[in-house]
Design a protein that fits this description.
- By secondary structure, this protein is an alpha+beta fold.
- The chain folds into two domains: 179 residues, 2-Layer Sandwich (Alpha-D-Glucose-1,6-Bisphosphate, Chain A, domain 4), CATH 3.30.530; 158 residues, START domain (Alpha-D-Glucose-1,6-Bisphosphate, Chain A, domain 4).
- A hairpin with a 2-residue loop joins strand 13 and strand 14.
Amino acid sequence: MAVASKVPPNRIGGGTRRRGAISYEAVRDDAHRGGRPWPPALRTQLRHPVEKVWYAITETEQLSQWMPGRVEIELEVGGKVRWSFPEEAWAQPDGTVTALDPPRLLEFFMPAAGAGLDWLKDETLRFELTPAPEGCLLVFTDVVEDRAGAASFAAGWQGCLDVLAALLGGGPAESDEDPARYVELFEEYMRSFGLDEGTAQPGADGWTVRFERQLMGHGVDEVWRALAGQEDAASGGTAAGEPVVGGPPPLAMTNGYVPAGAVTAVEAPGMLECAWGAEDGPAGRVRWELREGPGGARVVLTQTLPGEAADELLTALAAWHTHLELFARSLRGEDVCPWPEGRTRELRAHYEASLAAR
């Protein structure tokens, strides 16, 4: 199961995170899985010999101290991997060891089918150990078909590897339970991996601007209330009615760069759509879609634009990028006023250069 975590080598992007005596380098590998620059990986230097680390990542009682749930691995290619979560209402189907070279390599596949969770995807976990002068190098990879979830997986697995390092050093196997720390890591990884970036896709009738990102620590119902203006998500407030088709769009789904029209579709708590355009009529649609993801709600925001709207395209990319940053911060109870005009100008220049390079 992907920890709300994941992330080998040919570095093309990423960053280094340091906590205590351990540093983590998040890397992306273009050579992996047909040249796609995912999954991200976590690579860290451990001050312990390969054999000691191997024991900690394969022996059941050791694994259960630093990985979520209880993991039992039959150490042979084709062997079963049982990953149980006694306190959860769902069950992880058994996995299979797919590669094994003791004490250097362990890889296993965990299927999602049968777990009953829409956001859970098939995944492959891979541990590679290489001797180093002062211990060994660990490269941990979690391959999951969920690009937008990569930052949440990386943050979660970093927490697990922190506990592994403490366990190897003889210290208490305790994780950092501070939610703010997890969100901070998530935001760092999201920016490093470029997961906050929007895309612009041409179509027969124009363009579609699209953003997809996690809102860590906030479930779909909470995010819907904030988006629909029903209450202040951080502190609680006076509830308002549901948005209605033909009515005005809630303030939280609009900004001053994209003139908003009437609500055109509502499916609480999963979708809210409104028209946008000038006084002479709508030019397209803005749609927010919400679903559960690893560690929080997943938002997919799209805006359709006519084919001749090149200038509006750059404005939309910059405005919605800024908007989502502010929306995520507001969910955490931060004051996000006034709108950061300088940030939007910076992002507009960024997207202009990015599109010109395509």
